[in-house]
Every structure is written in structure tokens, then in C-alpha cells.
Amino acid sequence: MKTIDLRSDTVTRPGREMREAMARAEVGDDVYGEDPTVNGLQETAAQLVGKEAALFVPSGTAGNQIALLAHTERGNEVILDEEAHIYYYEAGSPAMLAGVQLRPAAGLLTAQGPEVLRRALRPANIHFPVTRLICLENTFNRGGGTVMPPGVMARFYAMAQERNLAVHLDGARIFNAAVATGCDVREFTRHCDSVMFCLSKGLGAPVGSLLAGSREFIEKARRYRKALGGGMRQAGILAAAGLVALQNISRLAEDHLNARRLAAGLAELPGVEIDLDKVQTNMVQVKFTGRCTAGDFVRQMAGRDVKCNASGADTVRLVTHLDISSDDVELCIAAAKNVLVKGCCG
Ligand code: TLP
Domain 251-342 adopts which CATH fold? Predict the structure, then answer.
């Protein structure tokens, strides 16, 4: 029986077309800037997000950390949401690598975020760290895959520019935000100085992310990528998969539809709470209100060939992607019903 894997949109496997493109890829040594496929991907990516240049990096975490290094100096303050991926899931690397002080602000990634930022900004004073960077995240992973509308990003960017601060966008899933709102991705990315987006999530590539920004910023980033061991050689084999992945952007709408179906089906079951307004892209956050804990649910579902991840003691995240069909969604709802009505959690 097929396992339905809803742990993340990172679990997709490259299909035949992608593997063939990888096999055919023209390659060169990218540390010398001589890989034509990497160069092609970087140019396409820069154009797509409306920036001067882009850099192919091994992962989203690498892209974010290189951005932090290139925007800041040791001891600078970086303001971000307390639930942001950079703060929550990147293994403490801002302290380890850039040596910056992170200032987690609750509610930064909400519609009231610009107000939260206004309160967090402090005047120049010898006691305070020098604030240099604001990190946004769109879509917001721990927020349930919610979209920050371009208008809210514009308010952040205006405030940052007034204070001479840079804005980095963790846009791991920025194309999900674009597809969900029907906006061109540049409507979002024009309100930041740098953006990282992932090829290896809903777009389905096996590896890779891009960091985009001004030419000067990307030159700096290239050196940090090298320093971190991310200067890859015949990386065109991976970039070729990335170019195929970029053709999957409009397909993200199917994942969003599947997530909405999944949320609606699960919301009918006893002992769970789902904020359907937050199901805006490819994620469903389920809160358990009865006897079942998140850990119980994950274990019971695994026994029924459905994988999902706990995102807290009483919350589980389910993510739809390229390898999840509408039939899989129905099977997942049936398995959850079995667990919550008849299983140990029932
Ligand atoms: N997120 C992963 C896990 O790390 C939690 C997932 O399964 O969602 N920014 C955001 C907003 C992300 O969600 C992720 C990955 C990253 C950055 C990092 O990307 P990778 O995994 O390529 O380093």
C-alpha cells in the first residue's frame, strides 16, 4: 500500500521529465562561473523575482544564512517573528555564523506586523545594538502557510527604508503566495532587498534554492556561499532540475485546493479544531482539543500509512504537494476519522 506523506512539501521525488533534463544538462565549473545551466537558472530566477542578480544555493537554510551574513556585521540586531523559520528551525546558525543578535517579535508576521515593528525599533543609543535587518517570511510556515499581502509588505518596506534598514524575505514558498492571491510574484518581492525561494518544496526539485538581490549583494553572497562550503562545481545537473521545477508554479493551485479539501474534511471530525481562514495555501494546521495528543495522532496515522508531523504538543501540520492527489486527500480524511472516532483517540 502506498504511503501518503503529508509531513512536508520537501518530500517530493523528481519525475522522469526532471531526471531526463538532469541527465541532458550542459555543465561547467560553477566556482569559475562557467556552468551554463546554473547561469541560466540564476538569470531566469533574478528576472522572475525582479532583482538584478541571483545565486543558486544548496538549501533554503543556506540562502537565509548567506543573506544574514551579507546584510549584517557581527553584533547587529536582526528583527524577526518569534515563529520565523530563521529563528525556530535553522539550528541556531545566526549566532553561529553571522554572530548577530536576533530580536524575536511576537506577531510580526500578522496584519498588525508593521505596528509590532514600530514598537520594536529603538532610537540610537550606546546601550542598544545596531539594528540592521528585518526578516519577513511569506508564506508563513508556522503560521499555517498564511500569506502576507503585498500591501502589508509595502508598509514594512517603507518603514525599513525610513530607518535605513534592509529587508530580507524568506520566500521559501513565495510562489504559493503569488498563486494563492493571483498576484505576480514581483508584487511581493519589490518590497524587499533580498529574497530566498526554494525549488525543492512545492515546485518539486530534489535540491536547491535561490537567493536574489542587487548585483553588489549577490557578489558578497557568492563569497559567503564559498566560505560555507556551498561553492558547487558541475551544479548544472541540479540547476536543470530547478529549471523544470519553475514550470510547476501554476500547478501549486492544485495543492491549495487539496489543502482546502483536506481541512474541510478533517474539520468535521470530533476533537479537532481547524481555523479554515488560515488554510490559504498548501498547509493545514490541526489543533487537538480532546483526548488525542499530537503525538498520539501522528503515531496512529502512521499505522494507517499516512505520515504527518507534530508542530507542537497539541498541533499537527499536514502539507499537500506534487505527489498528493485528491484521492490521497480522501484516504487521509478516512484514516483520521478511523483514528478519532474508532481508534485509541476515539
Ligand atoms: N522548512 C521545512 C522544515 O525545516 C521545517 C519544512 O518542512 O517546512 N524557510 C522556510 C519558511 C521553510 O519552511 C524552510 C524549510 C526553509 C526556509 C529551509 O529550507 P531548507 O529545508 O531547504 O533548508
Answer: Aspartate Aminotransferase, domain 1 (3.90.1150)
